[in-house]
Specification:
single chain, about 350 residues, alpha+beta, Phosphorylase Kinase, domain 1, Aminoglycoside 3'-phosphotransferase, Chain: A, domain 2, three-stranded mixed β-sheet, 10 strands
Length: about 350
């Protein structure tokens, strides 16, 4: 596996139109999408409805002439190269064929390609785009998570088992999610120190926690049985539950990390809940149906939860224009401090 490089013409997002207010930028992207649906053979009556704006912009596509529904993901400028997107799609396809994990299928464009590059005179940079099949199901309800977490643990274990034996295709390239890429000199999601609500006392407290996390992860190590290809964002918003079926979507952050990082991501934005220990046990129960973790691995679960939490503080600061970041803001940093105190009381 190799690190990513940006495609020519897909810049770093700092040109004129990329500095527009989010609403105007999204309006321009929306017009570009509306004018591009014919690339996938959609009828003139097809409509795109934005359903999410995070790293990327995601649309539900409805074509009343055919009755068809699909999902279009328009990629953020400069985050992933075309090779990296292709690598993501290769693993999703392999999981579906070889591991029994339900993931969306790609919908080829009329020219047969699965990755299109969209352009608009209103935007300084082109954007990669991928069309996916529409999967039925609902995001798990936050007041009924024990069952979904058990199923998630089992699905995660099947994904990890597959990753350990899967031979990466030639040219495979994805992000690496380790301590260096999270908190080193060039962090992938920016510096947590630059996020909302970070003052002197916050710098000291979260800085101490960062050092403890770093020491513990170094001791934990990166042997093949602990570190490899994983989803890296398998939170509630990226799950669809239909009856007893658990479907996994949005592999946009999949990459190389500790397998237990997936458990940390499953608890994204709910790390403060009093039932987190119960959710962890449900996840472990499901995971053990496929493979078991050692006592040493289980003992480090709080470290991966806080690793992810601190990484999300950084993400919120570097994605301040998104609705999710705006809704969390400084209170998320303040809550992280309370969790850091609890963590340091046990692990410092």
């Amino acid at each position: 596996m190799r690190c990513e490089s940006q495609d020519k013409g897909l810049g770093d997002g700092m040109a004129t139109t990329e500095a527009l207010p989010a609403a105007e930028l999204l309006a321009r992207i929306g017009r570009m999408v509306a004018g591009s649906l014919s690339l996938w053979g959609m009828s003139p009556a097809a409509r795109a409805t934005m359903i999410n704006h995070s790293e990327n912009v995601t649309y539900r596509i409805d074509d009343p002439e055919t009755g068809g529904r699909s999902i279009l993901r328009v990629h953020r400028v400069g985050y992933h190269s075309k090779d990296a997107i292709r690598s993501e799609l290769q693993w999703m396809d392999a999981l579906r064929r070889e591991a029994g994990v339900e993931t969306p299928e790609t919908v080829p464009a009329r020219d047969g390609s699965i990755i299109q590059t969209l352009r608009s005179p209103e935007l300084d940079h082109p954007r990669h785009a991928v069309m996916f099949t529409f999967l039925e199901g609902k995001e798990p309800a936050e007041d009924e998570l024990l069952g979904p977490f058990e199923r998630l643990g089992e699905v995660s274990a099947r994904m990890h088992r597959h990753a350990k034996s899967w031979r990466l295709p030639p040219g495979f390239t994805r992000h690496v999610w380790d301590f260096e890429t999270a908190f080193g000199p060039k962090p992938t999601w920016g510096r947590w120190q630059d996020s909302f609500g970070v003052d002197k006392s916050t710098l000291e407290l979260l800085g101490r926690m960062e050092k403890v996390i770093g020491r513990r992860l170094e001791r934990y190590g990166k042997p093949r049985e602990r570190f490899g290809l994983c989803h890296a964002d398998i939170r509630l918003a990226n799950l669809l539950i239909e009856g007893d079926r658990t479907k996994v979507i949005d592999f946009d952050d999949c990459g190389m990390s500790w397998y237990l990082y997936d458990l940390g991501t499953a608890l994204s934005f709910i790390e403060h809940r009093p039932d987190v220990p119960d959710l962890v046990q449900s996840w472990l129960k499901g995971y053990s149906k496929v493979t078991r973790l050692s006592r040493e691995e289980e003992a480090e679960i709080p470290t991966f939860i806080m690793f992810r939490r601190l990484l999300l503080v950084a993400w919120i600061g570097s994605h301040a224009e998104t609705d999710l970041a705006k809704s969390l803001g400084a209170p998320y940093t303040e809550g992280s401090c309370r969790l850091a105190e609890q963590y340091l009381s046990k692990f410092a």
